[in-house]
């Protein structure tokens, strides 16, 4: 039963930016953006000092600098981030083999039956956070609960460098008070649709019947029905292979030029590649999604014979799909990149064995 599980979600705090501040004392305490300050550059990650000014990942660099004139840019060092991620994962595996990475900087752990025979999941989370701090000089936030959905929500409650626990007898009440837009897995489009149906909070969602949710949301309706009641039976699966991994960004201002769109692809590709690296998988099919200012949406895809086993290869494939769409008389309000036809990285016949983000 899901109520019997002990699940921890660990999420590193502003991971890329924190690594840069750790390694460069001059950046500590200052607003830092990982990315390029060039005119067409995009922020890949932002420190908490930068976030206080409204700087966010996927934001154009010029907008970020306008919001925070003292913003300092650090070029990304993905080889370093990957190595730190490996050290953190080794800590996780000291406690349980049931580790499901979501990306380089976050993972689920099932510690119901753990290697150290520690009864308290909260104590394990505290130990893991302390070891991460000691061994990497970085901070992590953690959420502890009886299922994945609630553990993920919990890890966001006391960020940065925090711990939050949602016990079984508090799960349903916690969800009831939460705005629907805060639900993990409920994106902006679904939030808008739910709001139009009178669903503003978890309590509103709980009031809807299963047939109603299935009618409006299809197969996802059953999932929404469960999480509204604090129920999520998904297992932590270290060997889980998803059907696809994708990311997308809606822009504050529409993009018209090809070089703007190409620059905007970089952080999107980075997010997809980071997820693939964290889950140790590769893929062969790349899909680019474009939504125009008039809300027309198109997709373009290509499939390679060999696995796409590097971030550079993924970006090159996405760029090749994007180029024929320009020049365009319509502005682009959203870009997305998805990698599918997935397989474990160890099965790749390509000489590159990982996505090397």
Automatic annotation (TrEMBL):
<comment type="function">
    <text>Poorly processive, error-prone DNA polymerase involved in untargeted mutagenesis. Copies undamaged DNA at stalled replication forks, which arise in vivo from mismatched or misaligned primer ends. These misaligned primers can be extended by PolIV. Exhibits no 3'-5' exonuclease (proofreading) activity. May be involved in translesional synthesis, in conjunction with the beta clamp from PolIII.</text>
</comment>
<feature type="binding site">
    <location>
        <position position="105"/>
    </location>
    <ligand>
        <name>Mg(2+)</name>
    </ligand>
</feature>
<dbReference type="GO" id="GO:0003887">
    <property type="term" value="F:DNA-directed DNA polymerase activity"/>
</dbReference>
<dbReference type="Pfam" id="PF00817">
    <property type="entry name" value="IMS"/>
</dbReference>
<keyword id="KW-0808">Transferase</keyword>
<dbReference type="GO" id="GO:0000287">
    <property type="term" value="F:magnesium ion binding"/>
</dbReference>
<dbReference type="InterPro" id="IPR001126">
    <property type="entry name" value="UmuC"/>
</dbReference>
<keyword id="KW-0460">Magnesium</keyword>
<dbReference type="GO" id="GO:0005829">
    <property type="term" value="C:cytosol"/>
</dbReference>
<dbReference type="GO" id="GO:0006281">
    <property type="term" value="P:DNA repair"/>
</dbReference>
<dbReference type="InterPro" id="IPR036775">
    <property type="entry name" value="DNA_pol_Y-fam_lit_finger_sf"/>
</dbReference>
<dbReference type="InterPro" id="IPR043502">
    <property type="entry name" value="DNA/RNA_pol_sf"/>
</dbReference>
<keyword id="KW-0239">DNA-directed DNA polymerase</keyword>
<dbReference type="GO" id="GO:0042276">
    <property type="term" value="P:error-prone translesion synthesis"/>
</dbReference>
<keyword id="KW-0238">DNA-binding</keyword>
<keyword id="KW-0963">Cytoplasm</keyword>
<keyword id="KW-0235">DNA replication</keyword>
<dbReference type="Pfam" id="PF11799">
    <property type="entry name" value="IMS_C"/>
</dbReference>
<keyword id="KW-0548">Nucleotidyltransferase</keyword>
<protein>
    <recommendedName>
        <fullName>DNA polymerase IV</fullName>
        <ecNumber>2.7.7.7</ecNumber>
    </recommendedName>
</protein>
<dbReference type="GO" id="GO:0003684">
    <property type="term" value="F:damaged DNA binding"/>
</dbReference>
<dbReference type="InterPro" id="IPR050116">
    <property type="entry name" value="DNA_polymerase-Y"/>
</dbReference>
<keyword id="KW-0515">Mutator protein</keyword>
<keyword id="KW-0479">Metal-binding</keyword>
<feature type="domain" description="UmuC">
    <location>
        <begin position="7"/>
        <end position="187"/>
    </location>
</feature>
<dbReference type="GO" id="GO:0009432">
    <property type="term" value="P:SOS response"/>
</dbReference>
<dbReference type="InterPro" id="IPR024728">
    <property type="entry name" value="PolY_HhH_motif"/>
</dbReference>
<comment type="similarity">
    <text>Belongs to the DNA polymerase type-Y family.</text>
</comment>
<keyword id="KW-0234">DNA repair</keyword>
<dbReference type="InterPro" id="IPR022880">
    <property type="entry name" value="DNApol_IV"/>
</dbReference>
<comment type="subunit">
    <text>Monomer.</text>
</comment>
<dbReference type="InterPro" id="IPR043128">
    <property type="entry name" value="Rev_trsase/Diguanyl_cyclase"/>
</dbReference>
<keyword id="KW-0227">DNA damage</keyword>
<dbReference type="InterPro" id="IPR017961">
    <property type="entry name" value="DNA_pol_Y-fam_little_finger"/>
</dbReference>
<feature type="binding site">
    <location>
        <position position="11"/>
    </location>
    <ligand>
        <name>Mg(2+)</name>
    </ligand>
</feature>
<feature type="active site">
    <location>
        <position position="106"/>
    </location>
</feature>
<dbReference type="GO" id="GO:0006261">
    <property type="term" value="P:DNA-templated DNA replication"/>
</dbReference>
<feature type="site" description="Substrate discrimination">
    <location>
        <position position="16"/>
    </location>
</feature>
<dbReference type="Pfam" id="PF11798">
    <property type="entry name" value="IMS_HHH"/>
</dbReference>
């Amino acid at each position: 039963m899901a109520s019997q599980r002990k699940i921890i979600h660990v999420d590193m705090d502003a991971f890329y930016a924190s690594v840069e501040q750790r390694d460069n004392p001059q950046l500590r305490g200052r607003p830092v953006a990982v990315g390029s300050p060039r005119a067409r550059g995009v922020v890949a990650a932002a420190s908490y000092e930068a976030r206080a000014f409204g700087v966010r990942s996927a934001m154009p660099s010029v907008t970020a600098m306008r919001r925070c004139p003292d913003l300092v840019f650090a070029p990304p060092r993905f080889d370093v981030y990957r190595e730190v991620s490996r050290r953190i994962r080794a800590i996780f595996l000291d406690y349980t083999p049931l580790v499901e990475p979501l990306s380089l900087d976050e993972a689920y752990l099932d510690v119901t039956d753990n290697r150290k025979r520690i009864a308290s999941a909260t104590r394990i989370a505290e130990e893991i956070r302390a070891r991460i701090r000691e061994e990497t000089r970085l901070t992590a936030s953690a959420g502890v609960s009886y299922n994945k959905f609630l553990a993920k929500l919990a890890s966001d409650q006391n960020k940065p460098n925090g711990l939050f626990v949602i016990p079984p007898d508090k799960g349903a009440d916690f969800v009831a008070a939460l705005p629907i837009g805060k639900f993990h897995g409920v994106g902006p489009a679904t939030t808008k649709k739910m709001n139009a149906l009178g669903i503003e909070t978890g309590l509103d969602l709980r009031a809807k019947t299963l047939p109603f949710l299935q009618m409006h949301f299809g197969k996802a309706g059953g999932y929404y029905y469960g999480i509204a009641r604090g129920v999520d039976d998904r297992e932590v699966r270290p060997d889980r292979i998803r059907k696809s991994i994708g990311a997308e960004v809606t822009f504050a201002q529409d993009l018209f030029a090809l070089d703007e769109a190409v620059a905007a692809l970089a952080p999107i590709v980075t997010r997809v590649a980071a997820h693939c690296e964290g889950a140790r998988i590769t893929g062969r099919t790349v899909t680019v999604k474009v939504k125009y200012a008039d809300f027309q949406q198109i997709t373009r895809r290509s499939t390679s014979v060999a696995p796409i086993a590097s971030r550079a290869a993924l970006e090159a494939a996405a760029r090749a799909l994007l180029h024929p769409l320009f020049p365009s008389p319509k502005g682009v309000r959203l870009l997305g990149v998805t990698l599918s036809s997935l397989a474990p990285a160890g099965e790749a016949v390509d000489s590159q064995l990982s996505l090397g983000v």
